[in-house]
Amino acid sequence: MAPSKSGGRTEVRRVSHGSADDDMDIDGSAGRPTRHYSESVWTWFKKRNGDTLQGALAFVPWVLQQAYFEPGPDGSPEGGLAPGEIVVHRGKGAVVFSDTSGFTKLTEELAKRSNGAELLSLCLQNFFTPLIDLINNYRGDVIKFSGDALSVYFQAVDDTKSEKHNSVVPPHGTYGLPDLGPMATAVLRASACCIEIHKRLHMFDTGIEGVYLCLHIGVGCGNIHILQVGGEIPPGTKVERLEYFIAGPPLEQIRVAEPLARNGETCLSPQAWDYVKDCVIEGRAITEHPQYHLLMRMDESKYTFPTIKHAAMENDNRADKKFRLSELNIIRKYIPSAVFKQIECGTLVYVNEMRNISVIFINGAKLDVMSNDGAKKAQELMVNVQKKCYQHEGTLNKFMIDDKGMLFLLVFGLPPLVHTDDPTRAVLSCFDMVKVFKQLGLAGQFGVTTGRSYCGVCGSARRMEYTVLGDCVNLAARLMGNATEHGILTDEDTKNRCSHEVIFNALAPIKVKGKEGRISVFQPIKKDADTQIGLTRQNTIRFPWYDHPFAGAQVAISNNGSNEMQRNVRQLCSVKTWDGIVKISEMLGGAFNKSMHSSQVVINLNSKVEAKAPEGSPFANGGIVILEGQAGMGKLELAEHSIVHCAHRLHILPIIGTIGPRPGEYARMAVELIRSTLGVFRLLQGCQNLPTDDFQALQKLVSPELHPRLPILRTALNDSGIKEKQQDILENALEVVMSLISKILQTNGILLLLQYEYGTTLFPKDSEDQAVFWNAVAKVTAFVQSEMKNGKAAGRKSLTLLLICPTAEGQDDSPAIKLAKEKNWFLHLSGLKEGIILEYMSNYLNVPDSKLPPPLTHFVTRVTGGNPRHIRETIDQLLLESNLQVVLGANQQPKDVTVKEMDKIDVSSWQHTAMVGNTVCLLEALDPLEAAVLKMSTCFEKTFTLPDLAASTCSRWADATHFDFLRLYKAIQKLVDHNIIDRADDDDFEENNANNANNNANTSGALDAPEGNPPSATNNDLIAKKSPSPRTSKGAFGKTQCFETKNLLIRAVGGAMVLEAQRKSVKRQALIDRALWRDLPAKMEALAKKRSAQHIPWYYEQAFRRMQPP
Predict the structure, then answer these.
(1) What pTM did the predictor assign?
(2) pLDDT value at 228 more than 50
């Protein structure tokens, strides 16, 4: 085993099939033992990885572990689990499917309670622990948790050939009776297990009044395949994700048998019954399916379940082939990344919670996974479903075959992939997956719901899975069953929470199992973007952000969205001191004019050119302007103003192409570029008679040598949502558009806008969109530079490229970036300063800035960080909650502005706003240790230190190691790098300590950094040093580092995630640590001196005195 660094976590690299005590290469560089580390280091790494292994083993069934040790293809070290192997196990045996009744009602009841997740987690543990213990004792293997149901495999194994078999008692456990054979024994064990389960767990008391849990079970037997499929890497991780499932004729048998059993009953298929009909007593007859049989009890004259269970346990040798520390990287492929991180940190209990999620159930048909071709198609299907799910940053929770057929369970909203628009993401991913099913010739049905559900581990310490439970999940399955082939059905909550990118058609209400009345259902349809982009046939300008939520806002159905955006432009760009508008106005050669930004203004090329851009400006001689900044910082407002100003006053016409904020929409950029280019031609003199059909107009305008590029563009123009050959479409579109721009430049200048946004996406670097965008930029940049060099001499007008992106990080080699920075045409937009915020608030509220109270400006500045969109949201929320009131005079003009109770505002409750919602998503995306550090940091009113946090997690007084401190420090540094936590200044540190000295630092006051340094962690000694060291001079090595959570928004949102009891505990532990740090070393030193002094007992002293002569 060898720890190596991957993604900021300690991983274990497999070097052999050895035991957990194998030598380790700590730095992961050699693949052989390194001897220079002390024993304490080895012990620490082995303990941490050993604890992780024990937690992770519960997520993997026995059959996968045994497959690993089977001979693999070409001697693969991963055995039967080698990459490319789809069928990892072929065998025979019995399969049990147990479904639990009562969990839906239990979840609904506990969802109403503040501690519902804790109570439900405890109930699940109390129920599943004895259930899984019984299954394991009978040698059953829990393959899958289907919500509250289990799929269990009892493998047919010839125990008479086992070394553990005593050759006296047969494998079935009854002395004197002949061996039944492997298959009959497996079915007998499954039957006995089911009987004991009913005996012990029927009508299980949940502790909630009127809620009991019952099981009804179906049993089948026959040939079994275990398949592993997938292999795509989820967003934000570096480890491929594999799904395993069980398939075979027993699943088909169970599909009939399980519904025939009532609560407390077990139904056997005809195939299973033939093996045990002489071993059991039959229950009531099933008239509708007489070939299926119910179990009543064992035929105790022959077999009893205690003897069957004892024999199964005696012959059980599965533990001989289980994963060890060297296989930890194999195990993690089968565990959700977020869950594995919690296992690593020892905080698995924290994954159990009630949260709002969007759930997708997919039922697949027309696929026989038992055939070789079917297995390959299942792999292809899984890979494509994973891709579409991960593109939209969702989680594929399960792939299984159960009583309902082949099922996918996808969830949007599970940490760390939490977004404010998860319902929209879920529906959009369904559109993509419908195309996948059609391409593979498979039938798919889709059900989508949104609601509050239990999300957490289900099972026991021996076997568990991460799953979701609740009415929302069950309803998704019901909607899936009612959907037509390739149809999508959603509930009302999903419809209400989706953005206007999706249109919903109301269908007739339906009756579903578990609901008293009929429920409303809807069919989602993706909204088509406006066919006119850029210059319209009405000679106005339409921007793509009217149809797509580039700034994180809702997409408008009508023109109200354009009116709102134009109002934002007027209000923000009217702030004369804003750096953004100052710089753009310099380049345009004219001040901002509100009158240009209204829906009534049209472009008239017959009018005289009103102005001229200054010499050297990119709008005069061509060039590249880049607007960089996070969403809401004003990029769109500046871009809209620049385009409108250029068209109205300079007669420089716009051509527009955008990518995002939804993933994988490269073809849309191609369509937008073509349509906006055609819009320019239609406006120009002599081109008004172009065909209304875009493709026909393209054929008329494009030169003959480019005609071979047109067929692929026709497909995109007919379907802008096409997902196939998108990069080819974009490449051909760029060539055609650049050739058409060359024609336009003979008479008019062009402002070419290219935009990339990733919206609420948390891991944009994991998608291809960014690379595709910058590749397109590179091609256009070469064209622009050529025009800058040769265009003017050839009599052509200026060509300006306007780029909009959230960040240009990592693109330093881009010619566009280099040119823009060299010419000072690169604008990085950051938060507004407080004085500018005051002016913007004045514009937004339409009141003089002298009327705005200073406390209001200060509060808005601290909460919003100067983000214009956040400023608008904050003001709207303050007006809604009556914390801010604009008093109108007799003429309905603002007379005064009043504020009240600013200190009582709960910012964390504004989760419907993009400001707070995106902050919640940011914090949810943190690793477990980083999230814990942030939450603890909000417990301190001002500064804190590493030992303050360690006091609650890995105290130096409780056997903490330097490695523990290092992990905590690394988490703090990551938060500092992401500007979530700030380093405290030295002056702040001294001032806060002085305040602490005056206030005696009690628990109700501020907890700030203590004097003195934390233990040094620079050697291999395991125990943290406990001797104090004086504070060193400024800048000296070893100085105590202090930190503070200054961002009010992050402090409010992070603090809301901490329970009051946890807050008090963190403060208490920090105070205890400081007291020990201050007083204990001196007392220990005094004690050591006392112990070092020679001590003579008093009775010896008396004896010595008596012995001395008088």
Answers:
(1) 0.86
(2) yes
